[in-house]
Amino acid sequence: MKKIAVLTSGGDAPGMNAAVRAVVRKGIYEGLEVAAVYNGYQGLIEGKIVPMELGSVGDIIHRGGTMLRSARCAAFETEAGRVKALEQLKKHEIDGVIVIGGDGSFRGAYELTKLGIPCVGVPATIDNDINGTKFTIGFDTALNTVIDAIDKIRDTATSHERTFIVEVMGRDAGDLALWAGIAGGAETILIPEEKSDVDDIVERLESGTGRGKKHSIIIVAEGIMSGNELATMLKDKANIDTHVSVLGHIQRGGSPSARDRVIASQFGARAVEAIKENHSGVAIGMQNHKVIDYDLQSVFENSEQLDLSMYELSKQLSI
Ligand code: ADP
Fold it and tell me: Which residues form ligand 1's pocket by a CB distance below 6 Å?
């Protein structure tokens, strides 16, 4: 292993830059040559590959998004596309690739590994939905962005004695909604992994009102239904008026939190060690506060269960 490349792919997440910096700096520290691929797998196919130096990643640790840009690339999902990427890697004499992204990007890395190019996946997505790791880069920052929004919404909810629905990101995974709901003291949390009954939500809201509660906050992950759909259901079912706030893409941006910068640094550095040790086809992750590497394939085969104790806790604390 003499020369490695790093790329960011799929949905961007705060902390990707810190991971890129860690890969470049640790790679050079380990005596490797490091190149960067711009625009994810699309850039790999097009040969947008440039050599990196220590200074190339200066002044990015605190920036959101990704300096390498990200892209979604349908061509890479075809054998022909991946063969083109392989040709570019050969041309640039690259022996291994570190892919920073979500589980879609990991599938791409897995396919590339099968073509004989060792790849290592570094998990970065605000959804925190990659099997085998407790945390992904970007989740903590997004969570803090949501909490900040909930706190502000709470001020107006209290002042005007209103019920607010806050829609957060999470197509298949409710981690962001669940953690934000607990940290933000929400009355009700709706997540894709758990069925929610409108009657039950109405009952909880009405029992709160019965106890003299003047305002409520409901967090809904976009994957179960939209905030506006829920508002309509509550109006139709029980004539409950709500205000809807859709947080949208602000959740993906912003300066990464200290925690995301640190795990991005740890994951990026471990990825370099793994690739240098020829641990090909692995993902980097965190379990029991330790940085680990594990089989990339297991990311697609296992499906992580939601931490039900967290969901239970949220219900117990919002009676
Ligand atoms: P994320 O990495 O955030 O989950 P996507 O699911 O959009 O984002 O995947 C990012 C990119 O990874 C895709 O645009 C595609 O280039 C590549 N990819 C996804 N699935 C596969 C697959 N099965 N085989 C090869 N490449 C894939």
Answer: 9-11, 41, 72-73, 76-77, 101-105, 107-108, 111, 125
Amino acid at 194: E
Q: What percent of the chain has pLDDT over 90?
A: 87
**Which helix or strand (DSSP H or E) is residue 274 part of?**
helix 258-276
Query: What CATH class is the domain 142-252?
Result: alpha beta
**Residue-wise pLDDT tens digits, 29-87:** 999 999 999 999 999 999 999 999 999 999 999 999 999 999 999 999 999 999 999 99
Q: Whose CA is nearest to atom 6 of ligand 1?
A: 104
Q: Which residue, judged by its Cα, is nearest atom 9 of ligand 1?
A: 104
pLDDT score recorded for residue 73: 97
Known catalytic residues are 127
Q: Residue with the nearest Cα to atom 7 of ligand 1?
A: 10
Instruction: Give Cα separations from 211 to 155, 207, 219 (angstroms).
Output: 20, 6, 21
Q: Ligand 1, closest atom to CA 82? A: 25
Q: What mean pLDDT value characterizes the chain?
A: 95
Tokens linked to 248: 């949208």
Residue from 8, 46, 68, 72 whose mutation best tests the ligand 1 pocket (most atoms within 8 A of CB): 72
Per-domain residue ranges for the chain? Answer: 3-138+256-301, 142-252
Q: List, edge to edge, every strand of the sheet that includes 188-190.
A: 188-190, 216-221, 163-168, 243-246
Q: Whose CA is nearest to atom 20 of ligand 1?
A: 104
State the architecture of 3-138+256-301 in CATH terms.
Answer: 3-Layer(aba) Sandwich (3.40)
Apex 293 CA angle, 290 and 298, nearest 5: 120
Phi and psi dihedrals of 216, rounded to 5?
A: -145, 155
Give the DSSP H or E segment for 208: helix 198-210
The CA distance from 223 to 201, in Å, is 17
